[in-house]
Amino acid sequence: MSTMMAAPSLVRCYSSYRNDLMKSKWKCKAEGEADVVVIGSGVGGLCCGALLARYGEDVLVVESHDQPGGAAHSFDIKGYKFDSGPSLFSGLQSRGPQANPLAQVLDALGETLPCATYDSWMVHIPEGQFLSRIGPTEFFKDLQQYAGPNAVHEWRKLLDAVLPLSAAAMALPPLSIRGDWGVLSTAAARYAPSLFKSFLQMGPRSALGATKLLRPFSEILDDLQLKDPFVRNWIDLLSFLLAGVKANSVLSAEMVYMFAEWYKPGCCLEYPLHGSAAIVDALVRGLEKFGGRISLQSHVENIVVENDRAIGVKLRSGQFLRAKKAVVSNASMWDTLKLLPKEAVAKSFSDRINTTPQCDSFMHLHLGFDAEDIPNDLGIHHIVVNDWKRGVDADQNVVLISIPSVLSPNLAPHGKHVLHAYMPGTEPFDLWEGLDRRSAEYRNLKAERSEVMWKAVERALGGGFSREKCEVKLVGSPLTHERFLRRNRGTYGPAVQAGKDTFPGHSTPIPQLYCCGDSTFPGIGIPAVAASGAIVANSLVSVSQHSNLLDAIGI
Question: Where is each Amine oxidase domain found (predicted)?
Answer without folding.
Answer: 44-538
